[in-house]
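USER: For my understanding, would you kindly supply a protein sequence with its structure tokens?

ASSISTANT:
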Amino acid sequence: MNFLLRLFREHPGSVDETYLQHMKMSFSFSLPMFFASLALIVHALLPFLFVRTGSHVVTTLHERMVAGRNRQRAGT
């Protein structure tokens, strides 16, 4: 049982989140990524549509995930 609990807590703890906080954050990333993937499929077929959608979503999510976490750890 301790092994299973460790599996559920190890990664969220490594990013200073509880299991439930990590689940919420992961779900909040999944929807934009899902819609971006659909836009990119359309873009692959019709390259004049959704020209900046993929890069915009990636940049936005990176800001939330990495840059925001780095700022939080720095205390700013």
